[in-house]
Amino acid sequence: MALFVGGLVLALIAGFGLGRATGPIGSGGVTPGGGMGRGGFGQPGGHTHEDHPHVETGGTGEHVGGFSVSAGGYTLVPEPITGAELRFRVDGPDGKPVTSYAIVHDKPMHLIVLRRDLSGYQHLHPTMTPDGTWRVPLTLPDPGVWRAYADFTVRDAAGAEVPLTLGVDLAVPGAYAPR
């Protein structure tokens, strides 16, 4: 069963990577630098989620989603995990917590938590408090390093939608044995 789940997670990640490498239909595909074309905000090479274009490209010097805790002036700020709950906020360019998000795929925030050795995976939908703090029940069952990917679209001061994927490592103490 563990091999099946591991294979399924690996297939999903490979499909996601292949989709990013080839870009949307008619986008022009991969640039010589190995990443997608310039992309973002409807330009060729970006990808979209229900008319919410992302600025997540590779090989062109632009932001690649999930590899950094900050991008485009926005920063993912996690709180220490206490009990079985993860709390975090997204601070905007003004240093204040963001409270205005667009709904993408029926939710304002998608949180993917993946163990670095791919032996664990969770797709969660946190809820936001009025002060901009996101909360979600989270149990990381095995020691080791996990990566949390927050995928969301904020509305900036001018009302424009800014899609982002920010990531942060979560360490679970204990005797770590990679699988």
Write the layout of secondary structure elements.
Elements: H1 2-22, E1 48-49, E2 52-53, E3 70-71, E4 74-78, E5 85-91, E6 109-115, E7 121-124, E8 127-128, E9 133-137, E10 144-155, E11 161-172
Question: How do you describe this structure in short?
Answer:
The protein has one helix at residues 2-22; strands at 48-49, 52-53, 70-71, 74-78, 85-91, 109-115, 121-124, 127-128, 133-137, 144-155, 161-172. By secondary structure, the protein is mainly beta.
Based on the model shown, name its key terms.
Immunoglobulin-like, 12% helix, 2 domains, 1 helix, 4-stranded antiparallel β-sheet, elongated, 179 residues, mainly beta
Task: Kindly describe this structure.
Helix content is 12%, strand content 34%. The protein is mostly beta strands. It has two domains: 1-63, no CATH class; 65-173, Immunoglobulins (Immunoglobulin-like), CATH 2.60.40. The strands form three sheets. A five-stranded antiparallel beta sheet has the order 3-4-5-9-8, with no helix packed on it. It is elongated and about 50 Å long.
Q: Work out the helicity level.
A: 10-25%
Structural class: mainly beta
Total strands? 11
* Mean pLDDT level: 72
Gross geometry: elongated
CATH structural architecture of the largest domain: Sandwich
Q: Please identify the top-level CATH class of the largest domain.
A: Mainly Beta
Q: What number of structural domains do the residues give?
A: 2
Provide a count of the helices.
Answer: 1
Low-confidence stretches: 16-63
Rg, Å, rounded: 17 Å
- Determine the N-to-C terminus distance: 14 Å
Q: What sequence of helices (H) and strands (E) makes up the elements?
A: HEEEEEEEEEEE
Query: What's the assembly state of these chains?
Result: single chain
> What does the largest sheet look like?
5 strands, antiparallel
In CATH, the homologous superfamily of the largest domain goes by the name: Immunoglobulins
User: And the CATH topology of the largest domain?
Assistant: Immunoglobulin-like
* Strand order in the largest sheet: 3-4-5-9-8
